[in-house]
Amino acid sequence: MTDFFPSEAPFLPHEAPLKMEPQNLHQQPDRHGRPFRILDTTPKLLWLRRLFVFGTAILLTGFGVYKINQVFNSLGVSTLGVIVLVLFAILGFWIALSFTSSLGGFASLICRGGLGLGIQRTGALPQLKARTAVLMPTYNEDPTRVLAGLKAIYDSILATGQIDAFDFFILSDTTNPDVWLQEERAFLALRQATRDNQRIFYRRRHQNTDRKAGNLHDWVTRFGGSYQQMLTLDADSVMDGSLIVRVVSAMENHEGVGLIQTLPVIVGGRTLFARMQQFAGRVYGPLIAHGIAWWHGSEGNYWGHNAVIRTRAFAEQAGLPHLKGRPPFGGHILSHDFVEAALMRRGGWAIHMVPGLFGSYEESPPSLTDVAIRDRRWCQGNLQHAKILGTKGLHWVSRTHMLTGIGSYIMSPLWLLFLLFGILISLQSHFYHPEYFGTKPTLYPHWPRVDPVQAKFVFIGTMGILLAPKGLAFIAMLFDRAALRGSGGAIRLFLSIILETLIGGLIAPIAMLIQTSGVISILLGRDSGWNAQNREDGRVSLREVARGYWVYTVFGILLAAAAWSVSQALFLWMTPVLLGLVLAIPLAALTASRDVGLGLRKAGLLLIEEETAPPPILRLAAENDRLRTEAMHGPHQPPSEAFALLRTDRTLLDAHLGALPPARKPGSAIDAHLLVGLVKLKEAPSLRTALSKLNRQEKAAVLGSAEGVALLENLPE
């Protein structure tokens, strides 16, 4: 490379269109001669693994139902007893399936599995033969933060000596015009820092149709023909270059594989909540991921990022149709990743996960509030899958993925119902007495009666199955010396698991009510919208927390009063749930605290290997973030407002003008926001007046027009 003037190179390469049509969910797909049931990369005896996982879960559930029936219906069948029995069967199978899957994960971890497809953890890197596009979608995010992570990925791939096999695309769906111009400036700075005009590209969609799925669709149909694979990222993704090379090589060597999902490990947490999330993800996450990969086999899932996808397979099978009806259940598909994986597998492409490779990272939202906002959108997307379950030609495991996604949110209201019906049974036993004399005298009344001894055994057994994966993860960590040392040793690891379990247990009833309210609002027809994810851990005032969580405290107090009025035993039995709800406000404030999170880190608790002994990719990311922070606090800060930024940075202005789309042709669609914005600019006596008159859509429209940019350039201050 001899030209290091990033503003003079085009923002995008030459287009190489690839056809991508919406799939018909009501007819079988065209598999182009590929097999469906057993693929070339399907592990041997996979059916036996699945039989073990589901068969054992069914047996455990059946035994639990038998025991719970003895608890509530020991003297006969009743309505409340049957309801509780059905709820327990559903909830029991849910936790039993998680337990049996974790047993497979434990075996895989101990045996150093979790790879397949010829992938090696160590040794010389394979040589790549085809081109791969690294795709970084972004939506109203801090561009300097996003591109600091992307630069770390670039530098890590560069260190492998195979940078020529990769191009990098920043795919913006940003609607905030100020952020848009900051993205362009950060993009040019990235080109300058890497001295690379030929591999780093930027594209912003002026109409962000179908959100992230539409963003990728637009790239595939414009540029996908030039790349055999694409690596999809999220705005907070960081991936090691050697991991990327190994996974891409596996895809090149297995023509029937359509997608390879890596295991993203959460890092960078500073608040107590984020550190709990990253600790749980690092300690329990591998066990869970190894478990599902163990029985998913070639019918794996896609988590939306940190995955390598065969571009042709994606274009051929993963075009998403719009669902009939209005949001929240109709319209474009929100949780697109599960559906895209299911459609690709339906088309005869293998979907694999490789949890045995480390080097794939992401971040956690900093607080319970931020998770609740994100979960509301995920909840709507997962419930929307109910309309896709009947798609013709889906593999049964793909349907299981969708049912699991739906269940992850439906279980919260079911747990709440189980709790409330349990209270009703106790209330009935407390306030109603048997009628020994009637038209047909009987010795035994027909209502649910609680057997306290059996209830204790059921509770102990249920908690054992629920907590067993944590115990298995602890044992597995004892066999991984590096991870154990990075977590502070066996004693600190054990104490951290206890701490995370206790605080997580207190948060669980709050999360249950949050998810239940989300499910109810979706069933009432309320759309979640699309907001940018908060990734910063700024301080939250106690007043703000109280405003968001007082309702859970009130509900907990009312529930405690109801339990106490029935019996002290019931009150004590429900104490873990009641305590979490009553303490909702201080819990939310405590877990959102950065000081508490960092204090526990200093105490050697909730540690993970990636922070005590960071791998090279995370050191690169940390250094980039340090430089970014220093630049933010430097003496010469560029304006954050888009008009001012363009007027003070001629290089950015020239590059921006060169990247604008062609002017509107006669007869094409009319942009009302642009017309109104141009009129307002022409009538404005000054830049300040123009800014006060333009709304966000109009401002973005005039910035996307050469005429609009010329007008604002000539306006006086």
UniProtKB/TrEMBL annotation:
Keywords attached to this entry: Cell inner membrane, Cell membrane, Glycosyltransferase, Membrane, Transferase, Transmembrane, Transmembrane helix
Query: Gene3D superfamilies this protein is in?
Result: Spore Coat Polysaccharide Biosynthesis Protein SpsA, Chain A
Q: What is its main location?
A: membrane
**What is its pathway?**
Glycan metabolism; osmoregulated periplasmic glucan (OPG) biosynthesis
Which membrane topology term applies here?
Multi-pass membrane protein
Q: Which domain of life is it from?
A: Bacteria
Localization per Swiss-Prot or TrEMBL: Cell inner membrane
Under InterPro entries, the record lists: Glyco_trans_2-like, Glycosyltr_2/OpgH_subfam, Nucleotide-diphossugar_trans
Residue ranges occupied by any Glycosyltransferase 2-like domain in the UniProt entry? 231-425
Q: Please give one Pfam family short name.
A: Glyco_trans_2_3
**Residues passing through the membrane, by range:** 47-68, 75-97, 406-427, 457-479, 491-524, 545-564, 570-592
Write out the similarity annotation. Belongs to the glycosyltransferase 2 family. OpgH subfamily.
Protein name stated in the entry: Glucans biosynthesis glucosyltransferase H
